[in-house]
């Protein structure tokens, strides 16, 4: 290496994979057992334990709730060993608690980080309207334009009919009117019960069978999706969606502009964003935890970094007995 040249800095996304792997392994024993709180608790405990070993000064911006609601990984909690770098953290130790509890596809453990002060804090706003698509159609997203018009523009850009487009969205009564509009326009819909972080990643992936994510879902999941999209390409736009007048008033009093269009860079403005996720149950993006013999398990994870644009898929085989010895915790 030439004198005076800079050494490559740490890729924290690689280190974060250990935390999502451990969270996935810990909650995997609850797959299909109908106990979503137990599954979520196992994932939170495991991720928190492993995060303490990461060399960083982290602050949770997107966590499991306020301190009195979430004893660990709560909003504002400090995590890591306290050494540089200073970073914002967004976590969802088990996205799709109900998916895990029912043994359904696409439950994942996920985490993202970026430079301190660069992650959007949604404050009192639990939900937001979101749209996400691949980079070749990113300029077509506009939450103020009628959805059928956007679908026509997307079909024209792709050189196909509107009937060839697929919109992925949460299956919720609040989406009934939009579903009717989409179907009248001729497009197809893929309804999902939960898990719009993984759905957003499917929508932004080049060559995916899904063209657009649309719908009102969790604002924390929107920030996590934006972190991943900063790394892998594509775009997400959204707008805060207060659930009632009390939440609207709280947001306005806190200084939030409820008309603002929140794009990818507004949700996560950092230049060095890291994202990691591990599959819990099998899904379109990742394979879930598979138990091998009495003490083995395999996981599949994804690791991304915006600065390099590198996206890694990581498969691993774990010895659950050795992990228990190291951590004094039960895994899987």
Overall spatial form: globular
Q: Give the topology string: H per helix, E per strand.
A: HHEEEHEEHEHEHEHEHEHEEEEH
Which structural class do the helices and strands define? alpha+beta
> How much is the radius of gyration in Å?
20 Å
How many distinct helices? 10
User: N-to-C terminal Cα separation, in Å?
Assistant: 44 Å
Percent helix, as a range, is 25-40%
Instruction: Let me know the number of strands.
Output: 14
Roughly what is the average pLDDT, rounded to an integer?
A: 92
Q: Which stretches are poorly predicted, pLDDT < 50 over at least 5 residues?
A: 1-8
Largest sheet: 8 strands, mixed
Q: Roughly what fraction of the amino acids lie in strands?
A: 25-35%
Overall description:
Strands 1, 2, 3, 4, 11, 12, 13 and 14 form an 8-stranded mixed sheet that branches. Strands 7-6-8-5-9-10 form a 6-stranded mixed sheet, sandwiched between helices. The chain starts with 11 loop residues before the first helix and ends in a 5-residue tail after the last helix. α1 runs antiparallel to α2, α4 packs across α5 and α6 packs parallel to α7. β12 and β13 form a beta hairpin. The radius of gyration is 20 Å and the shape is globular. With about 325 residues, it is an alpha+beta fold. Helices cover about 30% and strands about 25% of the residues.
Question: Short description, anyone?
Answer:
By secondary structure, this protein is α+β, with helices and mostly antiparallel strands. The protein contains 10 helices and 14 strands.
């Amino acid at each position: 290496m030439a004198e005076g040249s800079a050494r490559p800095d740490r890729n924290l996304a690689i280190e974060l994979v250990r935390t999502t792997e451990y969270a996935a392994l810990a909650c995997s024993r609850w797959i299909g057992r109908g106990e979503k709180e137990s599954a979520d608790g196992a994932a939170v405990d495991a991720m928190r334990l492993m995060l303490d070993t990461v060399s960083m000064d982290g602050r949770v911006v997107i966590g499991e709730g306020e301190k009195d609601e979430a004893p660990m990984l709560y909003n504002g909690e400090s995590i890591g060993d306290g050494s540089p770098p200073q970073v914002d953290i967004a976590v969802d130790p088990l996205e799709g608690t109900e998916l895990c509890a029912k043994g359904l596809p696409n439950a994942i453990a996920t985490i993202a980080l970026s430079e301190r002060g660069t992650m959007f804090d949604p404050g009192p706003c639990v939900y937001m309207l979101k749209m996400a698509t691949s980079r070749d159609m990113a300029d077509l997203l506009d939450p103020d334009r009628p959805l059928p018009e956007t679908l026509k523009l997307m079909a024209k850009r792709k050189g196909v009919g509107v009937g060839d487009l697929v919109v992925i969205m949460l299956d919720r009564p609040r989406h009934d009117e939009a579903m009717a509009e989409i179907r009248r326009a001729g497009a197809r819909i893929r309804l999902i019960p939960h898990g719009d972080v993984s759905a957003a990643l499917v929508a932004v992936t080049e060559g995916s069978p899904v063209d657009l994510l649309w719908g009102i879902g969790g604002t924390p999941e929107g920030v996590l999706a934006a972190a991943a999209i900063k790394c892998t390409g594509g775009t997400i736009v959204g707008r805060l969606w207060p659930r009632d007048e009390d939440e609207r008033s709280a947001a306005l009093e806190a200084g939030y502009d409820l008309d603002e269009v929140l794009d990818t860079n507004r949700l996560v403005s950092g230049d060095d964003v890291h994202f990691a996720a591990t599959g819990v149950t099998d899904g379109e993006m990742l394979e879930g935890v598979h138990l091998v013999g009495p003490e083995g398990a395999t996981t599949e994870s994804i690791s991304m970094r915006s600065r390099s644009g590198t996206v890694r898929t990581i498969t691993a085989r774990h010895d659950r007995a050795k992990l228990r010895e190291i951590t004094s915790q039960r895994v899987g």
